[in-house]
Amino acid sequence: MTAASPPEILRAPLVVEFPFTRSLGPVQSAFLTGLREGVVLGVTTADGKVMVPPVEYDPVTAEEIRDLVEVGTTGTVTTWAWNGSPRPNQPLATPFAWVLVRLDGADTAILHALDAPGPEAVTTGMRVRVRWAAERTGAITDIACFEPAGDGAAGAQATPHSGEFADAVTGIVAEARLDYSYSPGRAQTAYIAGLSEQKTIGERCPSCHKVYVPPRGACPTCGVATSDRVEVGPAGTVTTYCIVNIKARNLDIEVPYVYAHIALDGAGLALHGRIGGIPYDQVRMGLRVEPVWTEGGRYPDHYRPTGEPDADYDVYKELI
Amino acid sequence: MARYAREVAVIAFAQSDHLRRTDELSEVEMVMPVLHRVLAATGLKAGEIGFTCSGSSDYLAGRAFSFTMTLDGVGAWPPISESHVEMDGAWALYEAWVKIQTGEADTALVYSYGKSSPGSVRDVLTRQLDPYYVAPLWPDSVALAALQAQALIDAGETDEAGLAAIGARSRASAGANPHAQLSGAVAQGEYQVAPLRTGDCPPIGDGAAAVILAAGDVARRLCERPAWITGIDHRIEAHSLGLRDLTDSPSTRIAAEHAGVFEAPVDTAELHAPFSSQEVVLRKALGLGGDVAVNPSGGALAANPMMAAGLIRIGEAAARIHRGESDRAVAHATSGPCLQQNLVAVLEGDRA
After folding, report:
1. What is the value of pTM for the model shown?
2. Closest partner residue to A81 among B136, B146, B242, by Cβ?
3. Who among A14, A113, A217 is closest to B29 (CB)?
4. How many CA atoms lie within 13 A of B308 on its CB side?
5. CB contact, 8 Å: B254 with chain A?
6. Cβ contact, residue pair A180, B193, below 8 Å
7. Is residue B33 classed as helix, strand or coil in its secondary structure?
8. pLDDT tens readout for residues B108-152
9. Does the structure's ipTM exceed the value 0.85?
10. What is the distance between the alpha carbons of residues B308 and A285, in angstroms, rounded to a whole number?
11. How far is CA B78 from CA A47, A164, B72, in A?
């Protein structure tokens, strides 16, 4: 057991990006294609309400609804909120109002941004019109934002629309990126700090005395904190292995190679690593191995045979 | 009275201190002490629990299947009966309650947690919105709540001073809650998204909570005064914000009717209203009069650990019954923008 001098908690940037490709149903396709063409479409429910933006199923009856109508590009603000500090990715980079707008001919409201000089220029009930984006692709952002239209702006009625356009948009790519600052917590910080000194640090469960490596701070069997740090290894025993024959993209390791579970001496469970320094077809259960660190490596590059006699099966069978 | 097949009660509740950052703790390190406290309160061992259910969100952690890591804190070996909801833990409690109603378990451990500190929660929450028409505009959680607040002001149901008073009362009440993140006098501050000011918005923080449910005689044996769940229901609004009357919450009202809220007076209401304006909507939907103690814990305006704040409302209401401070309480949890989804539970203690 080593003295527990708490290292500074590690933190690192973590970026999650996802360009989900989503297909559109007939109603959403017509709506988004319409935006590309400068036309706003809604859908009529069984009781005659016009919903903009349109949905494919009546929210009250759950009936499929497909009757498309064209509504106006002017409308009325039903509620609003002044956004003095726009956040990344929002429709406008300058202060703007979030608005719900009931377009002329529609019975429901659409959420978007309103470009206005300040909150004093915005009221519930004000008249606004669509400002189209310079380049339109068939997305909600084809509406760049709304802008004040003045009280004299003419209204419009909903009129039937086929929803048919040449070269209809059938899918969207929903791009998103979220930035995090990840911290692995106390136990994993200690493990990673140990690796920087080419040591493998586990933690012992005070209840069942098993040593977990890498430690995550808890014994999953007993459900208690593991706080006693224990250095394990460096050598260990191959408990099981497989031969990898398919080369992964961007991996500069020649196939076939061996990927193994390795029970480091003193550890209560096996971790995994690549086996090198021995022909792939000579790797075996019980093989004694030790880590090989490369210059500047932050974890063992691979494990190689120590040359010791193989471990007896009974010694490691509980760890397979 | 016999609304359901079995009597089920909340018999224990524990929560972490809710903090702005907990960098030194992994999720399991944050959750585990809470699990230990709630188990200790009942004398149950992890292995004696019939069903375990948790609530959390991968988008907060920025990692797939993040809940599997916290299972280490439960003691999941030998294998346990376990489930997870990608939602507030109040819905995990609902699942556990159903499990007990079916007779498949007599006890359940329900826990939930959220660390908002690693990311920007206002932006993260945009990813739960409609991906076709709404999410590409990145309207953050405060902006959507502000639209609802303005609708309430336009309708004459509140004003900015009224909203500020809700925040002030919540943080004053939180003075008696050692786990709260914000308590006492807090400046109302600048507009975040007008008409909402800093004081109308919840603190961003990390935290966890857990409750234990038990059926009938098991509850009586393990708890001096069980908080019986005499009614529970949850409902959801149509998802398009422009389709809803943002000044009302029909889903809360219907859930409350089905849970029996209106069948007798309540003395306590723990409402999951992360924004001051949402309390106005919920008070109306639940028909709460001035004689009801609303959020004596301080509510979500004092501590709003994502995915746990709703479960905490049920836990706080139950704890008041355990302590004899309440006989009939309503607990409410919400999820999603502008009170999208609402869960209502009625908790009652046996009368002397």
Report:
1. 0.94
2. B146
3. A217
4. 30
5. no
6. no
7. helix
8. 999 999 999 999 999 999 999 999 999 999 999 999 999 999 999
9. yes
10. 46
11. 56, 59, 12
